[in-house]
Design brief:
Blueprint lengths: L2 H14 L3 H11 L6 E8 L3 E8 L14 E2 L3 E2 L6 H21 L5 H7 L7 H7 L3
Antiparallel strand pairs: 1-2, 2-3, 2-4
Length: 132
Amino acid sequence: MSKDWVLRTVDKLINKMDAPTYRTFHRLISHDQYRARLFRMKPVGKESIQISIYKIKNKSLKAFDKVRDSQLRPININAPESSFEIGIVKAYNDCRRKYLRKYMDGLSDGEIDVLLRDNYLHERDVKKLLHY
């Protein structure tokens, strides 16, 4: 995301709801007082996901050049341990649920819940898992 894209997005938020926080964001971003990070969430193993954080180069913030890429510890999708992990797993499963409904029309909510217990779903596995 470029600086211009971020500013346009913040402007849209200001137009929808003129909150002081959005104006502060706009001012800080306009003056290059922000850090850019990419958060990537991916499955690791059958029941876990991992969030990786990557630094995006920002020439005007030399103080942050020493920040390294990092990874949070894996989160078990079937047993999240904190409110943060619960929120991450919920967002992850909401996205997966949306695509299961889109590409495998006709599955019940219970069947989808069974499928969400496993990170690596393939259409050929669905019938076997659900005994179709």
